[in-house]
C-alpha cells in the first residue's frame, strides 16, 4: 500500500510536476520516452545461459513492491498512474532551491535496483505502473 505523500516529499514534488499521460500515439517514436520503468507486474529478466541460442533466457519475474527511496516508490506514492516527469526542474543546482526534498537514490532495472542519484542520472522518467511479459517468447 502506498505511503502518504507527506511521508515522501519527493512524491509531493512529482504530484505537482509530473504529467499524467492519457493518450499515446502508437505510430509515434518512443525514443524520447526512455527509460521505461515499471512499478508492478512482471519484468523480463534475462539470466545468462550459454546453452541457449542467444546466450540468455527470458524469465517472467514477478516484481516486488517498490523499495522505499526508489523512484518507483515516489511515483506510486504520488498516485499519478502512467506519467512522465522532467527531472531538469528538480535538480537543486539548476533551480537553486536548497529546500527541495532529496530525490530518489535508486531505480529498478528489470527486477533489481541500481543505487544512483536518480535526479542526476536521468533527465526524465516515464512511469509505467504495470508491466507484463509476452507469453509467446518461446516462438521467437
Shape: globular
Report on the biggest sheet: 5 strands, mixed
- Strand fraction equals 25-35%
What's the Cα radius of gyration? 17 Å
Gap from first CA to last CA: 37 Å
Q: Kindly report the average pLDDT value.
A: 76
Give the spatial strand order of the biggest sheet: 1-4-7-2-3
Compute the number of structural domains.
1
What oligomeric state do the depicted chains represent?
single chain
List key phrases describing it.
two-stranded antiparallel ribbon, 140 residues, 4 helices, globular, five-stranded mixed β-sheet
How would you describe the overall organization of this protein?
With 140 residues, this protein is of the alpha+beta class. It has one domain. 18% of the residues lie in helices and 26% in strands. The chain contains four helices and seven strands, in the order H-E-E-E-H-E-H-E-E-H-E. A five-stranded mixed β-sheet has the order 1-4-7-2-3. A two-stranded antiparallel sheet has the order 5-6. Helix 1 (9-17) crosses helix 2. The model has no long low-confidence stretch (mean pLDDT 76).
Give the secondary structure arrangement, pairings included.
Layout: H1 9-17, E1 19-20, E2 36-45, E3 59-62, H2 71-78, E4 83-86, H3 92-95, E5 106-109, E6 112-115, H4 118-121, E7 124-131
Parallel strand pairs: 2-7
Antiparallel strand pairs: 1-4, 2-3, 4-7, 5-6
Helix pairs in contact: 1-2
